[in-house]
DNA sequence: GTGTGCGTTG
DNA sequence: CAACGCACAC
C-alpha cells in the first residue's frame, strides 16, 4: 500500500499468498522464519503445527514485523495465519462442528481478501472410521465456504486438502486407484468446493503436468520425484481475475530436515 | 611416520590420543566426524555408543581413512576405537566377567601402544544394587589391566571412569561428599589402578585446578562451569615419559546438541 | 521415515 | 535436560 500525498491512499493490492504444511512448527520454526525472509509473502498459512496454543512464537514473529492468528493443540493438527498486513475478523473451526476438538480451520480477512486456511482430514483408508469423519468434515467445510463466499467476493481457500483432485496429481494413478486421497468420492468433495465458484489456481496456470506438493518420507520418494498434489489454493472469481502465477516450492522440500510437504504460493495483481 | 630414502623408515611415534563419551553415537555421529576432522587425533575412543553392533558406521569412517573396532549394544553402553593407524589384537570385555552382556571394554594395540577403552559402571548410588556391580566390575578391570601391563610396556587406559578421583575434581565437594562418583571407596578403586603403575595424565600436566569433563544436562550446569572430572587418560611409565600435554575440550561441550561429556586428549612425543 | 507423547534412566 | 523404547499417526 502506497500513501501518496497528492492522490490519497493508493492500494497496489498485489499479493503473494502461500500455504505450507510444516509437520510440526516446533521442528520447522527456523525453516518458516527462513522461508518468510526469502519469499517475503503477504500471507503464509500453515498446517500441522502440532503445537499447544500457548507455545506459538507470536512475539518472535511480531518482532520480525508479522501479524499472526493461530489455533493450536498438542500433538495433532493446528493451523496458523502469518501476515505482513492486519488480520481481521478471525474465525476458527467449522460452524457445523462446534464441538470438534481438532484444530483444522482458521479464517481471517487480510487486505479485503477472506483467507480460509484448512488442514483437511486425512482419512487413513476408505474403510476406516476416520474416513467417515472425513466425509462429514468436508460436508461441514463446504457449507462453511458457501456461507463465506456469500460475504466475501475475494476469497481464497487454501491448505492441505488431503485430496489429489485428478490422476495428473498422482505419481502412480494405477497404484493409487480408489485409494485414500485419490478415491472418486473424495474427488467429488473437491469438485463440490469448486462448484461453489472456486478455481483450482494451480491448474488455472498449469493445466497439465506433475506439480506434487507432498512426498512420503518413506522410501525416499522425494529424490525419485514421486508425490501427490494435495495442497491447494482455491480462489473465488474475483481473485481468479487477479491471478498471475502459482508455484510449488520444491527447493524447500529439499531442505535438511524437511517437512513432507512443499510450500505452494500464488501471485495476484 | 616418515619414510626417508637414505635413512630407512623413521618412526616419529608422536601421538594424539583422545577419549569422548558421546552419549549416543546415533545422535553424535556428525559431531564425531567433525571432531576427527578438526582435531585429527591418532586415536579417538568413544563410550556410550548406545548403538547396536551392526549399526556402527564403519564404512563411512573407513572412507574417511579411519580404522575402527567397536563393541555395541542397543540402548546402553557400547565402546569404540577409531584410529588413523592399524588396529591389532582387539580384545573385548573383561576376562573375569565373561558372561557380562554389558559392552564396556575394548582393547587394541596401535603403533605399539596398548589402548584400553573403558566405560566404567555408573553405580547410581552407594546403596544401590548397581553399586555392588560397580565394585565387582572395578575388581575385574584392575585384574585385567594388571595382566595387560605385564604384556605391554606402553599402555593407556582411558575412558569414562565414573569416578572423580579427588575433591579438586568436583565443583561442590561438600554436596558430593561420599556421594556416587566421589565416595572414598570408589576413589580407592581408582587408586588401585594407579598403583598398578599408571599415571593420571591430566594431573601430571595440571597438578591442580578444575578440569571437569562431565556437566549434568539438568540445571544448566555447563554454562555455570559446574562439573566433575570423571573421564581420564591413565598412562604407563613408558608412555608417561613421552607425555607432553593433556586438555579437556570444553568447546565441544558447548556444541549445539552436545554430549554431557567433553572430549579429553593427550599428546605424546 | 519422521513427527508426537509417555514412562524410564542418568 | 536429553538419551532411550514404545505406541501411534500420517
Automatic annotation (TrEMBL), chains A, B:
GO terms for biological process: DNA repair. Its cofactor is Mg(2+); Mn(2+). The keyword Manganese applies. The record marks 261 as: Interaction with DNA substrate. Transmembrane segments: none annotated. Residues 18-261 form the Endonuclease/exonuclease/phosphatase domain. The record marks 162 as: Transition state stabilizer. InterPro entries: AP_endonuc_1, AP_endonuclease_F1_BS, Endo/exonu/phosph_ase_sf, Endo/exonuclease/phosphatase, ExoIII-like. GO terms for molecular function: DNA binding; double-stranded DNA 3'-5' DNA exonuclease activity; endonuclease activity; metal ion binding. It comes from the Bacteria. Keywords: Hydrolase, Magnesium, Manganese, Metal-binding. Pfam families: Exo_endo_phos (PF03372). The record marks 231 as: Important for catalytic activity. The active site is at 119, 160 (proton donor/acceptor), 261 (proton acceptor). The keyword Secreted does not apply. Probably binds two magnesium or manganese ions per subunit. CDD domains: ExoIII-like_AP-endo. Mg(2+) binds at residues 21, 48, 160, 162, 260-261. Belongs to the DNA repair enzymes AP/ExoA family. This is Exodeoxyribonuclease-3.
Amino acid at each position: 500500500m502506497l500513501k501518496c500525498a497528492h492522490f490519497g491512499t493508493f492500494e497496489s493490492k498485489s499479493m503473494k499468498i502461500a500455504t505450507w504444511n510444516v509437520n510440526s512448527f516446533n521442528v520447522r520454526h527456523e525453516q518458516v522464519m527462513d522461508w518468510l525472509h526469502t519469499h517475503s509473502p503477504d500471507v503464509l498459512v500453515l498446517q500441522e503445527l502440532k503445537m499447544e496454543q500457548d507455545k506459538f512464537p507470536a512475539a518472535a514473529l511480531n518482532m520480525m514485523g508479522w501479524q499472526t492468528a493461530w489455533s493450536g493443540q498438542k500433538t495433532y493438527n493446528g493451523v496458523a495465519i502469518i501476515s505482513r498486513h492486519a488480520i481481521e475478523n478471525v474465525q476458527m473451526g467449522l460452524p457445523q462442528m462446534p464441538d470438534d476438538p481438532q484444530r483444522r480451520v482458521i479464517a481471517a480477512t487480510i487486505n479485503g481478501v477472506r483467507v480460509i486456511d484448512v488442514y483437511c482430514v486425512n482419512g487413513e483408508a476408505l474403510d476406516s472410521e476416520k474416513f467417515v469423519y472425513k466425509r462429514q468434515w468436508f460436508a461441514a467445510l463446504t457449507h462453511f465456504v458457501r456461507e463465506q463466499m456469500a460475504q466475501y467476493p475475494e476469497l481464497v481457500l487454501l491448505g492441505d486438502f488431503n485430496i489429489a483432485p485428478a490422476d495428473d496429481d498422482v505419481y502412480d494413478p494405477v497404484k493409487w486407484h480408489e485409494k485414500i486421497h485419490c478415491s472418486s468420492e473424495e474427488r467429488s468433495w473437491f469438485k463440490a468446493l469448486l462448484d461453489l465458484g472456486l478455481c483450482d489456481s494451480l491448474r488455472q496456470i498449469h493445466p497439465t503436468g506433475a506439480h506434487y506438493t507432498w512426498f512420503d518420507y518413506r522410501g525416499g520418494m522425494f529424490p525419485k520425484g514421486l508425490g501427490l498434489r494435495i495442497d491447494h489454493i482455491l480462489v473465488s472469481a474475483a481473485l481468479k481475475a487477479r491471478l498471475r502465477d502459482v508455484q510449488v516450492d520444491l527447493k524447500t522440500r529439499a531442505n535438511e530436515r524437511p517437512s513432507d510437504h512443499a510450500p505452494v504460493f500464488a501471485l495476484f495483481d
